[in-house]
Design brief:
five-stranded mixed β-sheet; mainly beta; 1 helix; disordered N terminus
Length: 133
Amino acid sequence: LEPRALAVDVDARPRPEPCPASARACVDIDGQRTWLQEGGQVSYGPVQISSGSPGPDTETPRGSFRVTYKVRDEISREFNNAPMPYAVYFTYNSHAFHEGNPNVPSAGCIHLSHDAAVTFFDSLQPGDEVFIY
C-alpha cells in the first residue's frame, strides 16, 4: 500500500494559550505578535507587532481590556502630533492598536503594519475584549 498524505486544514489553527476564547484580539508581548479570533479560533494573524519599551511611562499594559473607541485619522498630541492611523483604543490611558513601524518600539501602544492596522480597525468594535500577555 502507498502511504497516504494526511489532509491538514491550515485554517483550523488552535488559539495560542493563554489567550481566552472570549477575547477578540490577543497580544503576545514576549513573542511580539498579535491576532484576531472568533469563538476562540484564530481568524487573522498572527502578525508582527512592536509594543512599548520597559518602563513606567512606556510599557504596554498586560491584562484584559475592552475596546473603548476608534479613530481612523488619529494624531498623538502627547507625542508632537505623531500620526496614529487606524487607532483602536483599549484603555483610557491612550493605549491603542495603530499603524506604525512594527520594528520600532512604541510608547506603550501596539504598532501594526498598514494592512494589519486596517484589518484590526475594521474588525474590532467598542466592547470587544483585548487580552495582552
